[in-house]
Amino acid sequence: MQLLEERIARDGRVLAGGVLKVDGFLNHQMDVALFCELGREFYRLFADCGVTKILTIEASGIGIACITAQFFHVPVVSAKKCRTKNISSEVYACKVASFTHGCVNDVVVSREFLCPEDRVLIIDDFLAEGNALMGLLDLVDRAGATAVGAGIVIEKTFQGGGERVRKTGLRVESLAKVASMSEAEGVRFC
Ligand code: 5GP
Questions:
Q1: Cα dihedral angle (175, 154, 5, 15), rounded to 10 degrees?
Q2: CB atoms within 10 A of CB 83
Q3: What is the helix (H) or strand (E) element at residue 79, kind and residue range?
Q4: Rounded-to-integer distance, Cα 143 and Cα 162, Å
Q5: How many CA atoms lie within 13 A of 63 on its CB side?
Q6: CB under 8 Å to 182, separation ≥6 — which residues?
Q7: Among 55, 125, 181, which is best to mutate for testing ligand 1, by the most ligand atoms less than 8 A from CB?
Q8: Crossing angle for the helix pair 62-72 and 32-46, to the nearest 10 degrees
Q9: Ligand 1 pocket, residue 129 CB under 6 Å
Q10: 150: part of which helix (H) or strand (E)?
Q11: For the segment 132-175, what is each residue's pLDDT rounded down to a tens digit?
């Protein structure tokens, strides 16, 4: 998506460790007009999939998921990162290694909000090694629901998560695909 690539090239900053900082428009300060265009594009891609729910993971996926949900007219479920030792039987739970924080989180969704009839579109800001997406997919499976696909804003293809997740058969659509990036030369798109 050209609009997004231009914005990343203009305002994104490459940090050490393969992290792309897009705090100015995507996940700290949020450009809602841009989110609207991203949501419209996700709707164009997945409109005929019978989506009944959008699933994301806190925190940075929530804004994009909510704007996208306005096009689909469905609720957003945000999987929560949980720090308590006791996971209640009222939730579906999985473990997700965090790319940016280097820790492992228990991630939970209340059983109340995902059911076998649901057709779930997963939305997230980044796809790096694929841990977040695999975790969300696991939660959908545990609920007996159907994952119709994943909409990702920025996929860093060189970190392998896209290949890993697509191997499961899940349809993954990324609006910008970064082939490589460096502090010196910036971002190169696929
Ligand atoms: P994965 O689980 O695919 O390795 O990483 C995806 C998650 O890590 C996303 O939910 C996102 O919050 C975070 N993430 C991964 N790479 C980046 C990055 O380059 N920049 C930022 N801001 N977040 C990232």
A1: 180
A2: 7
A3: strand 76-82
A4: 23
A5: 18
A6: 14
A7: 125
A8: 50
A9: yes
A10: strand 146-156
A11: 999 999 999 999 999 999 999 999 999 999 999 999 999 999 99
Q: Which two tokens stand for residue 150?
A: 């994943």
Angle (nearest 5°) at CA 79 between 104 and 71: 140
Which structure tokens are listed for 152? Answer: 């990702």
Return the pLDDT at 89: 85
For ligand 1, the distance from its centroid to the CA atom of residue 101, given in whole angstroms, is 9
Q: Is the CB of 25 under 6 A from ligand 1?
A: no
- ∠ CA 63-161-167, nearest 5°, is 115
Q: Is 125 in the pocket of ligand 1 (CB under 6 A)?
A: yes
- What are 99-132's pLDDT values in tens digits? 888 899 999 999 999 999 999 999 999 999 999 9
